[in-house]
Prior knowledge:
Shape: globular
Structural class: alpha+beta
Strand content: 15-25%
Number of helices: 37
Number of strands: 43
Radius of gyration: 32 Å
Distance between the termini: 58 Å
Helix content: 25-40%
Mean pLDDT: 94
Low-confidence stretches: 1-21, 26-31, 270-278
Amino acid sequence: MADAGCTSCFGGVFGAPRASVSDIEAGKTSVDHVLSFTLNGQKVEIPRPDPRVTLLEYLRDTALLTGTKRSCLQGGCGACLVAIQRYDQAAQKWVAKSVNSCLKPLASCDGAMITTVEGVGTERKGCHAIQERIAGNHGMQCGFCTPGMVMNMYALMKENGKPTAQQCMDSFDGNICRCTGYRNLVNVAESFAKDASPACQDLASKFTAFDADSEKLQQMPAPTQQISKVFKGGDITWYAPTTLQEVIDLRQKVQRAALILGDTAKGMRQAAYETFGGKQSNVIYLGFVDELNFVEESHGELHVGAGCRIQDLCDAVRMRKDKLVYADELGDAFCKIAQRHVRSEAGWAGNLMLTRVGFPSDLVPALLAADAVVHYVTTSPQESQVKMADFKQGHVPANALLTKVSIPLKNTGMYRYYRVGGRKWLAIAFVNAAFWIDVDPSTKKVKDARLAFGVYAQGPKRSESAEQCLIGSSLDTETLQKTIAAMHKDLDDEFQAGSQFVTVDNPKGKDEYRKTLPDSFLFKFFQEAQLFYGIKACDPDRLGTMRPVPLKRGVLKFQELAGREDKAQLSAKGLTTGQVRYADDTQVPSYYGYLVLSTCATGKVKKIDTSKAEACEGVKAVITAKDIPGANSAGFVPGEEPLFCPEGGDIFTAGQQLALVVATSYRAAKRAAAEVKVDVENANVGAVVTIDEAIAADSKLAGAALVSVGDKEAVEAALKSSENVIEGSTYIIGQHAFPMEKQSMCAIPEERNGMTLVASTQAPDFTRAVVAGILGLHGKGSLLTVKCERAGGAFGPKNSRCVPVAGAAAVAAHVLDFPVKVAMDAGQEHTAIGGRHSFKVSYKVGYKRDGSIQACKVEAWGNGGCTHDFSGFLFLEYAEAVPSVYGWGGKFCIDVHGMKLNLPSNTAVRSFGNPQGMFTTEAIIEHVASALGKPAEEIREKNMLTKSTAITPWKQTMEFFNADMLYEKVKADAKYNARVAEVEAFNAANRWRKRGVSVVPLCYGHSYVYAAGTGALVNIHGSDGSVTVHHGGCEIGQGIHIKVAQVVALTLGCDLDAVKVPATNTDVVPNMRFTGGSITSEVCCEAARRACLELNATLEPHRKFLREKKKKEIAEDPSKSGQSPEPTWAEVVAAANSVLAHQEKLSATGIFAPTNNKYTTDVQGNPNGKPFHGDYFTFGAACSEVELDVLTGETQVLRSDVLFDVGQSLNPGVDIAQIEGAFVWGIGYYMYEEPLFDKRGIDRTQGVWEYKPPMAAEVPRELSVELLRDNPFQKGILGSKAVGEPPFMLAYSVVGALKKAIASARKDAGAPATFSLPMPCTVDAVQRACATKTSQMTC
């Protein structure tokens, strides 16, 4: 569709006479101020466009194409992807690329053809094959990332036709999904590949056949000559010259002119809606300058113009394999920069220029080792040149304009590039390096060498002393050690500390680790060079870096029962087409709000000066505490957390809401928010920002100060009599929820001073109640309606932390009497929202020599942050999670202290205390194993409960206990014993790569307290028998709507297609509880089922009458013999309710309020349940195998096998998808995600630049998931069990396997067997645990 009418867009604009900048400024042309492009096949012309507007802003707020999502605003998540076709002057052809629209200036789209997800396909007009396969393969859950995933695959097809499987995998280097675990998405992409695996070919066969080559971009005539243009908006003027001379002239005529191509650096600056954040008033766009857009060869060199993108540089190098022997390696190095959506827009020249001011570039070291030369001009077209080694401030004029880079096309030598970041993709390098050597084939001595290092010293640079050590030497251990020593002598005095990793807990950051990486890189290089030059033979797969490879299609084993089959979500196709709308997509005219947050942990607000902000362009109001018509309270405990901290009020955390700037655009509101000046007295004085500081200050949450489980006296006595006793301690880190849709609200004023909140929430009724108080509607709260179509990921914080955002939007809408949208960006989300609770834990455990544990005592201190929120419940769940499936000799106790810190309030996050409990449990088990020199599995098995002994320390029977059986089954199915032998053989043969394999069991307690009492309303429409179901749960990606619909269809006997589940609405279903704890789906299903049973009772007389009538007709008419007497669903409904006949009430409500736990009472308030927090338990087990790079600490999960008991699944496809997503969440928590706070209580990991949830490269290469068969849960809803959260903890099997790999490395290093591995198990922590020394690097 995007190609339709493509030639007409060049009429007039591109066919006009060439204009110069002087002509433009003199106003001599009529087309110089018109921006022209096509959007989904339709021509668009915008006279005098505002150059500050990004493509995303235009698409969403002007074109109203909200399938393109506003999320991180840093070019790091992929939710905003579009496909762009443009004419590439350098390649002399049309090209198709995926682009981050949040970074791309709208003004740079001149002449382009833009396709959004709406232009790819719609449900009404027909879905694209990509959309069909994603929808049908459970390729989405919350769905917020789904349009970006569609556009990623679509652009890949446009560019390549049928891609390779590896291209499909690599294409995900710029897309984050927080829900699915990626496998289903990657497999869909591979199903279109020319070399798809048999399993992915089988996936393709389940859908309509589609040839990806048919989607490949077809070449069109080149456009006529582009003309120069000028666009003005506010304080910025955009110049788009077409000649180098125009650029030179402009730079001399206009002041503070910034040169841009993709302007992708705005993602780094976090000024996502300002072209240059107001720092430059003139912008010169280089995309149309012919002299800068070229790729050519001359004199044995490749020349690439400065108007070319980074991807152009990659492609130009790779196309010259016949002339550059290391073309693939150099091209791969360039492709380590950012991600492909950024590389398709970002200019290599801009990347180089940023490096001069400290940007940690991957490009410069790569070019340094390749002997590249950069050319530039200043005030005339006369070029000068400078070697990359001299490309730094002081050697290149400040007014230099880069024109090209020249790379020698060498036909000898070996080139390699190395880097390590927080994850494999889209992570700034801790250190990077590029090496090239040329070796004499006869003597095997080095003839020449280039050793370049980046993100280490003051700017990327070569180590000339190290190069000299190499030249004339052999590639042996002596040369290696001399080379390493020379490198450190050259560069260590200039070492640049990584301040972004320095925290109040870890003042050294990651610097010690970073200092070891050049040694590791050089050692790797020597090994690879020895193989390359035939000096020493070794396995090439064990050298270099671990590259992401295509993910194998999952092996899924499950049982389908009638009415509860594997079905896609009801909105699956709507999610793939972008037609499902989230809160920020609400189609109403609105203003936009941007929050002003505190930047200190403590202090008193003396003054909030809003005058400058109010004077900013587009600003409608600045809302503060004085504007609140009701209560200034937005937390769980009334009065504990103000909506806005007022003047004279106390700040108790960074990220506290101070004001809301409301403007006509998101961009204007964000820019004006920076102008709000806040005067804080005694900022950070007395701030408590670590658990140890809270313990020292005895700072506790009054309502959650202590949770105790178990008999301490009995445990103390048992410890005294134990054969052996060990003690230990550990810290457990927190985690950001990182939903793809950040906290988002749309407040719409209604009559009678009422309000409608279109919310991204898990708690509509709680939000309604609190915001009603804020608006002064207490007692009239029904005037406030909260609707939730679905949340784009929630994971816990949208139960409570959404309320301050909702309150801010509501007050603004009330004051302005106009709709107001408030949507946080990723930086604000991490600053203000809080996340998973961190802990300090100490323990004492007694055990026998055979591994039997005799007693265990645990004491923990939990970081609740600055308010109570869910902390009281969470500390209880943590305490009850620690005992897990183990007996502990019948003697276990734990105390959990709830600590109050001056940090954002921690809250519910997926799995709610249990992941921290799992880490505590297994740390103790592994400590005992290490002390005895036994495998952890032996200790687990020795102490695991059985069905007859499964009683908790608080005396609750674990009914239907089967964790031991699941554990043994997954061991057998995964061939654990055989793989242990294989791993041992591998480790014996490999010093620098290690493997480990581990099995862990799981027990997870569920409590109905969070959702009990949630209701459902089922309406049957008599006209056609269709059914509408309203329920009190929120669709957050867990598949609650499809499960409810399936239960309704099964119970009523109607077709699933006849059932609709609308948005959750407080006007329709009152008294909703929280959506969380994994149990809301079953609560809503049971509520709906009960309503259906009532409806069935109403319909039964009509069904009976029609059945008897048909029996009589069949008996009287021989031609009807053999027909079923059963009436159809439509016939029954029509008989029960028709306009001129019988009219039954075909509407019923149901409620499910189980009375099993200690929270339920009778009408007099007396407990009528059992004295326990939890209602039932789920069980599972997993086996994982990992491979570890000892030299860098990088880890790859090779395979995971998961077995889980969900009873009789209501929808096995949805449940397995939940298991996969939760498992990858766990990998992220235990391995990669690392919130870092400084002494001011500021989170240093704000947004996608610093915070690293797992991407597709971090998930297991192979994954098998099995749901236990023939195992109905007798007390469950239709025999089912909850599933959304428990599998998270099974990812600990990855940690257990990693620890075994580390143990093997430590053995080879001669280090003690016992070691401590903190979490998350980041590359620096893992490498440090391996205890490798440079002196041990021998080759």
